[in-house]
Write a structure and sequence with these properties.
Helix content: 25-40%
CATH superfamily: Rhodanese-like domain
Strand order of the largest sheet: 1-5-4-2-3
CATH architecture: 3-Layer(aba) Sandwich
Distance between the termini: 28 Å
CATH class: Alpha Beta
Order of helices and strands: EHEHEEHEH
Number of helices: 4
Strand content: 15-25%
Shape: globular
CATH topology: Oxidized Rhodanese, domain 1
Radius of gyration: 12 Å
Length: about 100
């Protein structure tokens, strides 16, 4: 599984790189703040919302600490998607949140 640290993701975004961020936390968690432009699809409904994702794009998957996002990455890869886990999740995120 490919991974980025939260700091690597932050630096890429600051450099103007367009990342497709997929936040798999529950809606209540997202209300506490999410990375700008991240799409929220909770892990529990991801399999039912795959039609919202594009197999030609690479996704950086985010959760609270990195565990659920790792599960999401394994699932997405098995479905033919290109996904990268953001290790440490939002607990390690020091950048801007909305």
């Amino acid at each position: 599984m490919r991974t980025y640290t939260a700091k690597e993701v932050e630096k890429r975004l600051e450099a103007g790189e367009k990342l497709n961020l997929l936040d798999v936390r529950e809606a209540e968690e997202v209300k506490e703040g999410k990375i700008s432009k991240a799409t929220n699809i909770p892990l529990g409904v991801l399999e039912f919302r795959l039609n919202e994702l594009d197999k030609s794009k690479e996704y950086v998957v985010v959760c609270r600490s990195g565990g659920r996002s790792a599960k999401a990455v394994y699932f997405l890869e098995n479905q033919g998607y290109d996904a990268i886990n953001m290790t440490g999740g939002m607990l390690d995120w020091e950048g801007h949140v909305e």
